[in-house]
Amino acid sequence: RQIAMYLARKHTDLSFPELGDRFGGKDHTTIMHGVSKVQNELKINENLQNTISAIEKNILHQ
């Protein structure tokens, strides 16, 4: 779910509150936390980098 939040934030112009609504009425701070966790993990986790890259290739080239 946090990866989905990260990707939605990265690839849309939706605000954190708007994303919270799209993710089932989550508070905007929940979205902020999820995005931040993924951003921090991406700095150190090559497997996550590869996973997100593969997801982006799939969803952006459809």
Spans of at least 5 consecutive residues whose pLDDT stays below 50 are none
> Average pLDDT across residues?
97
Which percent range fits the helix content?
Answer: over 70%
Taken in chain order, the helices and strands follow as: HHHH
The CATH topology turns out to be Chromosomal Replication Initiator Protein Dnaa, Chain: A
Q: Which second-level CATH architecture applies?
A: Orthogonal Bundle
The CATH homologous superfamily is called DnaA protein, C-terminal DNA-binding domain
Q: Count the DSSP helices.
A: 4
Structural class: mainly alpha
The total domain count is: 1
Measured by DSSP, the beta-strand proportion falls in under 5%
Notable characteristics:
62 residues, mainly alpha, Chromosomal Replication Initiator Protein Dnaa, Chain: A, 76% helix, globular
Describe the structure in your own words.
With 62 residues, this protein is mainly alpha-helical. It has a single domain (2-60), classed as Chromosomal Replication Initiator Protein Dnaa, Chain: A. Helices cover 76% and strands 0% of the residues. It has 4 helices and no strands. The chain is globular. The model has no long low-confidence stretch (mean pLDDT 97).
In short:
The chain has 62 residues and is mainly α. The chain has four helices and no strands. The protein has helices at residues 2-11, 16-22, 28-42, 46-60.
